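Quick one:
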Amino acid sequence: MTYYKFFSNKSDLVKSIMDEIYTRSVEDYRNIMESDLPFTEKVIQTIHMKREGIKTVSNEFFMDLVAHPEPELASYMERMKDENVKMISDYFLLAQREGNIRKDIKVDFIMYFMNHMLELSHDEQLIALYDNAQDLIMELTKFLFYGVLNREIHT
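Output:
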């Protein structure tokens, strides 16, 4: 009963939780990307941030959220995704201009690929290869970042 004192329904509760996680992660991401760290260190910090952020969301919560979203939550998640795509795309464009991301790969392609990576995180056959969805997300994240960096950075 206390639950309904603060939230009109389950969707409002989930949105409140997601708002808190989203706001904190966006702030952390911006702090990393706007720091004076070399780009490779920014990538490493981002991966660590993502790893820690994923720990705050249970596998069951994540799977329920992406597998069976209510229309209101699906719309909410889509809006959050659109905001993220814009922010990340802007940082990738800046990194590309500064020579940190390969110039022979379109940022639009990178963003398109990232969206498909999100779809992959719902693939039951792929999920079965990992102990939990969080491990899969980290693997996809590392694949993306280390797949777009200039080769000179790795030497």
